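Internal ticket #5521
Category: modeling
Description: The requester needs a full-assembly model to guide mutagenesis choices. All entity lines are attached below as received. Residue total reported by intake: 894.
Assigned to: D.W.
Attached entities:
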Amino acid sequence: MTLAVAGTLMQTPAPDRLTVMDAVVEVDDAGRVAAVHDQSTSEGAASGRAALDSADERVDLAEGTFLIPGLVDLHIHAPQWPQLGTGLDLPLERWLFDYTFPLEARYADAGFAATVWDDLVPSLLAMGTTTAVYFSSNHLEATTALARACARHGQRALVGRVAMDHPVGTPEWYRDATASAGVEASAASIEAVTAVGSPRVEPIITPRFTPACTDALLEGLGELAAATGVRVQTHCAESDWHCDYALDRFGVSDSTALNRFGLVRPRTVLAHSDHLTPEEAVLVAGRGAGVAHCPLSNAYFANAVFGVRQALAAGVGVGLGSDIAGGARPGLLGVCQDAVTVSRMLEDGVDPALGATDRGVPESRIDTMTAFWLATAGGAAVVDLPVGLIEPGRCFDAMAVRTDRPGGAIRLWDGIDDEARAFEKVVRLATADDISHVWVDGSSVKP
Amino acid sequence: MTLAVAGTLMQTPAPDRLTVMDAVVEVDDAGRVAAVHDQSTSEGAASGRAALDSADERVDLAEGTFLIPGLVDLHIHAPQWPQLGTGLDLPLERWLFDYTFPLEARYADAGFAATVWDDLVPSLLAMGTTTAVYFSSNHLEATTALARACARHGQRALVGRVAMDHPVGTPEWYRDATASAGVEASAASIEAVTAVGSPRVEPIITPRFTPACTDALLEGLGELAAATGVRVQTHCAESDWHCDYALDRFGVSDSTALNRFGLVRPRTVLAHSDHLTPEEAVLVAGRGAGVAHCPLSNAYFANAVFGVRQALAAGVGVGLGSDIAGGARPGLLGVCQDAVTVSRMLEDGVDPALGATDRGVPESRIDTMTAFWLATAGGAAVVDLPVGLIEPGRCFDAMAVRTDRPGGAIRLWDGIDDEARAFEKVVRLATADDISHVWVDGSSVKP
């Protein structure tokens, strides 16, 4: 099945660049973008018409509906979906031990897991999350089931069974029995996720975070990554407590310790990382790893805000993560708003009792364009997937957003809104109900 | 017409208290709550049944749909609705002079004003904003039209024509010609809004903020407030620039200057006020004025975060404002989330390069319960309106929220979510599409 979509295409090829084109996007039968025809030229208009006429399926987006790339959520805890929005008045350790670990432990029940995955995956697709990088639970079976749910519903995903064995940092009722058992289960999960057989679903090695893992487990997972070439994800330098813990245990910073264990590698996703020093940023950039910036959960569990601009300037790859359920906003467009908001707060500071110059970090703010780039091309680059932009050779992972829905918050006003403002409104105000189409690999996946 | 509504009632009579009751709410033909029957007692069940049977209209909310008080938005710039979500990468002064003042000046066109008001008011009602405290534009006619739109669509509102005459702080194409012209137009607007004749719509005296007003205008409006007893609203101590400006011009702080002009009075709404010192908080509390806390716009234009807990401890009345369009989230439930989020950031700080103890303001965080109290009973108390709680004697301004909408983000899970968690999910995750009913004075106003 080939596809052609006609509409106004808005995307961000660079953090400071928005392009808007009246376009026909031609998608081949493998779901790749074959061509993007610019309707403002007579040649492009002719080839666009031809593409629309010859495609097996043709979609003409209505006036006021915009075509944008699908969103790449670099950090989601799939099993925490049922607790989305709750418990956010608690400090991280109580949140983990009282709420989160007990919930995650329930995924030993395959039926419960299946029920949650079959709600989570289509819900995220409906919000435009075409690629998800998942922390699953500690369970092999539930993790394989998550991979199958992604394949069945058509979501592009990296799916990681969470490895965790530390006798203090995890409860005895929810952990790998030993380090070697953890490494073996992680290896088995790589095989099981691969065996699902979807070209869109891959495994990812997932040590929870250093406080939850013994040295032997971290070392074994580093070796597994080196042996298999499979991507790695973990939490890094998230909070004061986490950083102090790492220094105390390893004598070096969290990122340095992770690197020594062979876990900071090309395409590694380090979630949060808001406490990275400039020197550590250089290390992360040099290793080809990247950061999943989770702006909303920064406010709750990180004690500080990740400096996006500083990291990009240091050459670190950065994308956005919802951090469900530490972040209680499931749609990644909403997370773009949060990324702009917390960047403004990082720049200006928060405490009115301090002088203006002592309060924040100058030159930290990002705009809606940069936030959207993080959520698309930026995140795609971190995990090296050919998505995030609608251009020839990349997969057609895309969505269409209405700006005229009665009951929605977006309005475009004649004589007021130009294309750049329309883009801002789409990113800042759209909810799932405003998203009319979602495609992954050229297939419609909007439930 | 009398009304009876059966369902699970959730509300916050105090910042730290959530009550949940399986209830029948009986509403008299004036739109007031006549009784709340507790269905868990046999007596309440009997009287509830009788109320349902005898009411002219009866609404039985479905299982999983919750009844909560309607929301009181203490600070909205109505004419900025068309720019919602745009320009938020700019500093306040450019945002005002390049975006906002030119837009507001367009409301000289009564047709344009009518078009915007007829979109804005029903949109806010659909999001549960049953009471709105509006800054209108500088125009008498557009302001009266806004009051009429509120009356027609059934929204409870305080509607203020914006007074502004300062030759430096305002552009010559958008200001009152003289201070006395500004006072006269404000007096005329009080009459015109009152003449609309809705029991739900009242005028409010609205000097924009000190930098936009000459001493003569501020003084004249203070006298007008004293003579008429009409409420006052203005911006107070919002940003570093604003505070420095006030000190420089008046030799005292912004709130002290406003008080000298007779503008800090019982029921005065001071928007933002994030830079209030503890001494000024005592002054504001002593005068019976209150604060419209606008958490999202704090991040954009205030250079700091308002300390809700500190203000409440000082006896200051506090409610929530969306600050449309400086805050780009129109629904006040979403603003509750933002209030929790920025309170966490105020507590923890933002700059990872600072030590943990130098970074934030301890004991600043609020939870979802407190945020919802601000958005309901707290805000109602600031403007002294009998709403914000569903109890006998208050107006039945209320809404019902579904927790089971396919495509929505809220889910309740058996064995996981108790009532307190269900409340958190409603407040944190509901969008306009999840709101099934909205009532003002017992009349259905959901478009």
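Resolution: model delivered.
Comment from assignee: The mean pLDDT of chain A is 96.
Ticket closed.
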